[in-house]
Amino acid sequence: MSQEQVQVAIIGAGISGLQAARLLRHKYSVKVLEARDRVGGRLQNHRFANGDTVDIGGQWVGPGQARMYRLIEELGATTWPLYDSGDNLLQLHGRLRRYRGTIPKINPLALADLGIAMARFEAMARSIDPAAPWEHVKARRWDSMTLDSWLKKNCRMSLARELFAVGIGAVFAAEPAELSLLHALFYARSGNSLETLLAVTGGAQQDRVHGGTAGLCERMARELGNRVQLSAPVEAVEQLPDGRLRVRHFAGSLVCERVIVALPPNQALRIRFEPALPPWRDQLLQRMPAGACIKCVARYEEPFWRREQLSGQVASPAGPVRVTFDNSEVGKASGLLMGFLEGDTARKLSSAGADARRALVLDCFAEYFGERARRPLEYVDRDWSSESWTRGCYAALMAPGTWTGYGARLREHNGPIHWAGTEFAVEWFGYMEGALESAERAAAEVEDALHTVQQRFEVAPT
């Protein structure tokens, strides 16, 4: 057992924690503690037998995410656009329909109903200040209802509601009944618009990173060197009589002046704080459960669906795979189909067993793209709800009452304890861009606090 002394301890070596360390390392001694035996958090690569890698966690960057593109450039990585040519497919009542763009061609009445509901939702989202959604004149009303209840009032046709729900599942990895309407509106506004979050070219799914987004975290960790300690799950953060903090972890402990917690809210609840966090903070973290997502990728000899002028993108209210993409990497021969199991489906199939889940996913791929899709060279999926140190993806959800009851204090530091991670962002909440934004804020808070203490010490009378 060892006890190290640093100025700043950062709990969590996801992209947010690593970026906070990068921002502070030149002025202060920093240590990043990570429970896993790898860095990246909700970003992870999988290596296929042929040597190709694929993201089985967060993967996309798009327009408006300046911090991410800047980081990619700083780290010497490059991007390529997700394949977005040809026809998309809509599976409806057992039939496949081709379409182009974000909205499929369906019954004209249902299409009009869906269009009106989406336009109304977008207008409401534009009226929100993402820095303070609780201050909106209708905040309490919107935060008192679920997105599902709003949809039932604003989409009169069941088909329109079903298609809207497919989009919601793709964005939140949750069901509409799980979300506060205010949270859904804030989330869309945080990422520019719901249309932006759903779109490929020009939207949040536009670009991929060569080497994977987890590769970015690995490069960040190499920069930080021995400032990053793996396999060190934090058990407790204790305040000492002199005001410093002792952080107890599996491999020992360290003493520091400031702590940045860069974990998903559900994982922060696993840490014992002494003295205990304020009751409101604990209550807030309890009200931020994670979505449920299983990401599935099948590798084929080639992207054979492109021969049929198909984009690889499918929307299916029936599922169980309700959304797919062509995840093939530019310059590589293999064809990769990627699909998501989300919300209730992910929770159900989480306990189904790997073989049964694989068969169901490949059945879906075969329904969409033909029998060849049933026979991949390799298949992998990642159940993020079963991952020991994550327990859900993509990000935390806000149930009714959370934003108006606690949101004003979400990003507030608790004395020497600061909060980072995508769930603490103003812009691009739920995305890597939001993780970087929150890292900047937390690092600035720590720097200001340590600078103030230093000034006080320098002017103190002898």
UniProtKB/TrEMBL annotation:
Domain (Amine oxidase) ranges: 15-446
Keyword terms, alphabetized: Oxidoreductase
Gene3D superfamilies linked: 3.90.660.10, FAD/NAD(P)-binding domain, Guanine Nucleotide Dissociation Inhibitor, domain 1
Needed cofactors: FAD
One GO molecular-function entry: oxidoreductase activity
Pfam families assigned to the protein according to its UniProt record, in alphabetical order: Amino_oxidase
Superkingdom of this protein's organism: Bacteria
Keyword Cell wall biogenesis/degradation: no
Protein name in the entry: Monoamine oxidase
